[in-house]
Inverse folding.
């Protein structure tokens, strides 16, 4: 898991304890889902070419 | 009085646009603090000109002479547009947002610009720069946000309608808390050109009104392709006005098997169940449907929001002292999330959208509570739901945030009261099904 306080310090960004908890909780929530992702071609389809 | 009724009265000569405008202006209560800018004299002049047009036989349609307001993040030519922030406190645009332009051409009278959560980045509208917007039903409570001023203005009769924006519930939350109708259309249905962006892939524009029919009238005028918004849909605009007959025969309405009726105030759950009984008695078929993992979808939407908002506001990061504490904290959190995490959140969004879309194979629309509780008090940070205590921001957005990641249309309508305060019902449907959810909303409203 990411050490968000250290990341913030390294990037010179202010982060409160609550903020670090928010990011930690999001990481915990999404990690198992991210691990289940399959490789897709252009999953974002951002250009939507005709 | 609704827009529909006012429009009939204007044409019958029962009252003039100037009189309607005067009535709205007289109701503007500084204690509610719904407006950042009131345009009283320009509005009266505009109304007089529109009265003269109508007298001369020039009729611009159902919004001719109707006084409305715009959330203060929509650019208005020559009129200060603050986005509820100190950063933009002196911003006077040289153009109108597309929705402002379209509604102006439709003959609306602009009463002013409504208060909001700073930069649309929050759900309370407790603004550190312009003061808290207060709930017209109880001044000690929040109006909700971020379009709090728009909902409060409509709820208190200060405007017939007001435009809002919704990135994670910002139209529907204040609509629910203030007891008005709020519509978040499908992503791309309404142009966002000229509205301050918060999160480009989550932002939606829509109306707050006194009735579902009024929301349909407004949507019909603001929907449609706009070359100035790259994500604006080219799909033809539907007929949104609900039929007079409230019958719901043939409509399949989804009853959520899980999630949406858990961890909600018991009176809210009862009011939502009662709405299902009403829909059934009007002929709808109620179908139980399993709901995908909404907590995970909400987490995905939060990652996307944090990053996109930090990117959108990047030019202003160095002006730290000009941000409110809560918004600054969110911007800092967004700056720390990696590019990999953002892309993965977008990939998960696609996976979840496909899972959620399975619901539409079984039903035409889905009903849920809009918010799990009534409006919290101003300054309240936790909320009691049954025996559990929850963070106000997380609890309030729980049924809405993920919907923005799906881009599907969502309507919030009043569906009862608890302790004298409004309860909101949310109606969801597949992309571009606005006509369906408006039909259901109108039928329930008329019941």
């Amino acid at each position: 898991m990411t050490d968000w306080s250290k990341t913030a310090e390294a990037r010179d960004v202010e982060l409160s304890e609550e903020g670090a908890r928010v990011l930690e909780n999001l990481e915990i929530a999404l990690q198992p889902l991210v691990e289940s992702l399959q490789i897709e071609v252009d999953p974002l389809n951002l250009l939507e070419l005709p | 009085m609704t827009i529909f009724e006012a429009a009939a009265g204007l044409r019958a000569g029962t009252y003039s646009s100037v009189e309607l405008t005067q009535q709205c202006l007289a109701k503007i209560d500084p204690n509610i603090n719904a407006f950042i800018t009131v345009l009283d004299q320009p509005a009266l002049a505009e109304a007089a000109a529109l009265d003269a047009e109508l007298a001369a036989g020039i009729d611009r349609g159902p919004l001719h002479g109707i006084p409305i307001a715009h959330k203060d993040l929509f650019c208005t030519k020559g009129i200060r547009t603050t986005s509820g922030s100190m950063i933009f406190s002196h911003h006077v645009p040289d153009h109108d947002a597309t929705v402002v332009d379209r509604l102006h051409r439709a003959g609306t009278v602009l009463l002013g610009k409504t208060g909001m959560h700073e930069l649309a980045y929050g759900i309370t509208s407790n603004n550190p720069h312009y003061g808290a917007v207060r709930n017209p039903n109880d001044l000690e409570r929040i109006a909700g946000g971020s379009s709090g001023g728009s909902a409060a203005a409509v709820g208190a009769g200060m405007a017939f309608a007001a435009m809002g924006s919704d990135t994670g519930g910002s139209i529907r939350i204040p609509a629910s808390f203030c007891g008005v109708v709020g519509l978040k259309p499908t992503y791309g249905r309404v142009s966002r050109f000229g509205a301050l962006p918060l999160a480009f892939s989550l932002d939606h524009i829509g109306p707050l009104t006194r009735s579902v029919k009024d929301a349909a009238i407004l949507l019909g005028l603001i929907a449609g392709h706009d070359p100035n918004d790259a994500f604006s849909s080219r799909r033809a605009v539907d007929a949104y006005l609900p039929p007079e007959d409230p019958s719901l025969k043939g409509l399949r309405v989804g009853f959520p098997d899980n999630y949406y009726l858990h961890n909600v105030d018991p009176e809210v759950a009862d009011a939502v169940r009662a709405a299902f009984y009403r829909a059934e008695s009007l002929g709808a078929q109620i179908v139980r449907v399993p709901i995908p993992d909404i907590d995970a979808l909400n987490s995905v939407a939060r990652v996307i929001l944090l990053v996109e908002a930090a990117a959108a506001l990047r030019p202003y990061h160095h002006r730290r002292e000009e941000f409110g504490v809560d918004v600054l904290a969110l911007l800092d959190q967004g700056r720390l999330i990696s590019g990999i995490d953002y892309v993965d959140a977008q990939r998960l969004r696609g996976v979840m959208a496909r899972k959620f879309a399975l619901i539409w194979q079984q039903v035409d629309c889905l009903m849920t509570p809009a918010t799990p509780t009534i409006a919290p008090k101003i300054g309240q940070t936790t909320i009691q739901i049954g025996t559990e205590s929850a963070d106000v921001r997380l609890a309030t957005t729980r049924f809405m945030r993920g919907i923005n990641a799906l881009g599907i249309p969502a309507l919030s309508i009043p569906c009862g009261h608890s302790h004298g305060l409004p309860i909101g019902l949310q109606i969801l449907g597949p992309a571009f099904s606005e006509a369906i959810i408006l039909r259901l909303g109108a039928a329930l409203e008329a019941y």
Observations:
- The CA atoms of residues 108 and 320 of chain B lie 38 Å apart.
